[in-house]
Amino acid sequence: MELPPPSTPENRPLSNPLLFSGNSNPQLAEEIAKKLKLHVGKALVSKFKNEECRIEISENVRGSEVFVVQSTCTASNGNSVNDSIMELLLMIDALKRASAARITAVVPYYGYAKQDKKTKGREPISAKVVANLLKITGAKRMVTVDLHAAQIQGFFDGPVDNLTAMPVACNYLKHEGLCDDKIVVVSPDAGGVHRAELFAKRLNSSLAIVFKRRPEPDVSEVTDIVGDVKGRIAVIVDDMISTGGTLAKAAEAILERGATAVHTIATHGIFAGEAIDVLERSKIERVIVTNTIPFPNADKHPKFVVLSIAQTLADAINRITTNRSVSELFTEDDEKKIPVITPAPPPVPA
Ligand code: R5P
Fold first, then answer.
1. What is the pLDDT of residues 194-233, one digit of tens each?
2. What's the rounded Cα separation, in Å, for the pair 141 and 147?
3. Which residues pair with 18 in a beta bridge?
């Protein structure tokens, strides 16, 4: 009989997983907790009058496995990206000093990710700085979704589970009949080709690539399209929507080449500045995102669909607490495990 591996501090399941949330996406944290049959731990996550973040963990965490859910984005209460980061860091510090046994930062959307290299001299590598801060503060591991570039995993000196929204997205697209030779999956830039290829494979459809250039930050121009889009519904696949310019411009170019309609799907709906207006005015028929980032009043925008990523995150957390494989979550039939259509619940009234 094969003996189980010896129990070590690294592989021993910790008791009493606890889950806490900052202010950036409390609705998602609640949803995850519900799926795990946990409650969101009591904590004061607020601000002093001088605008500094004020944190107090109100529950005993000694010896516990703790997950802190916080997307590093503009918060549902209007707090800035930087506030969200600071809240996360201070929560981790408070938990560490309160003797939590292991702290995992669950960062469904990892901000500053686009600044993952120097594109010219005298620029910071901001994605690395955020990873350093998380590690130094006391996060032992990180769970995230669709990092802008997978190699950002290497910036964090500890285990990173970079989950993907692809099963949730493909499940929805198939349910809507957006699959097979009816559609063409489109990457909106050269950097997204690998992601689009994986989508095309799952959706059993062909692939096209838009080439874009950025004359300046946050401005995009289409330079070329490779692949046949004529007579098909184009589904543009991206990791994030910031200003909406990439998708709006790509949609115009694709329709000019004879696509019959354009739908877009992206994991992270940042919707910076005028993005919602830009997309509403665009020729895109449907803009699909997940709830890694809160989308207040989504129900007021009929063109937009928000899918929930809570089940994927809950499954990953569950597997981490029991030392089971996380990559096994993403198998050929992973879509079957996700309930058909998972629109996020309506936002919690303020
Ligand atoms: C670029 O590399 C990303 O994958 C997205 O295409 C980009 O961040 C979208 O930005 P925007 O919506 O501002 O065009």
1. 999 999 999 999 999 999 998 988 888 888 999 999 999 9
2. 15
3. 66
Task: Judge whether 108 and 69 are in contact, CB under 8 Å.
Answer: yes
Gap between the Cα atoms of 301 and 264, Å rounded: 15
* Ligand 1 centroid to residue 191 C-alpha, Å: 10
Average pLDDT value over all residues in the chain: 93
CB count, 10 Å around CB of 345?
Answer: 15
How many helices and strands (H and E) does the chain possess?
8, 14
Side chain identity, residue 210: V
Report, as residue numbers or ranges, the catalytic residues: 212
pLDDT in tens, 81-105: 999 999 999 999 999 999 999 999 9
Go through 287-302 and write b for each residue having 16 or more CB atoms within 10 A of its CB, e for each that does not: bbbbbbbbbeebeeee
Q: How far apart are CA 311 and CA 33, in angstroms?
A: 10
Helix (H, G, I), strand (E, B) or coil at 67: strand
Ligand 1 near 146 CB (within 6 A): no
Domains and CATH numbers, the chain: 15-164+310-335 (3.40.50.2020), 166-307 (3.40.50.2020)
Is 282 a pocket residue for ligand 1 (Cβ < 6 Å)? no
**Residue with CA nearest ligand 1 atom 5:** 240
Atom of ligand 1 nearest to the CA of 243: 13
Query: Which amino acid would we find at residue 295?
Result: F
Measured in angstroms, how far is the CA atom of residue 146 from the centroid of ligand 1? 13
User: Does 111 contact ligand 1 (Cβ within 6 A)?
Assistant: no
DSSP string of 169-192? HHHHHHHTT--GGGEEEEESSGGG
CA of 51 to the centre of ligand 1 (A): 31
Please answer whether residues 22 and 85 qualify as being in contact, where contact means their C-beta atoms are separated by less than 8 angstroms. no
Residue nearest to atom 14 of ligand 1 (CA): 246
**Which residues, 6+ apart, have CB-to-CB distance to 82 below 8 Å?**
none
- More confidently predicted of 8 and 253: 253
Q: How far is the CA of 219 from the centre of ligand 1 (A)?
A: 9
The angle subtended at Cα 255 by Cα 252 and Cα 261, nearest 5°, is 110
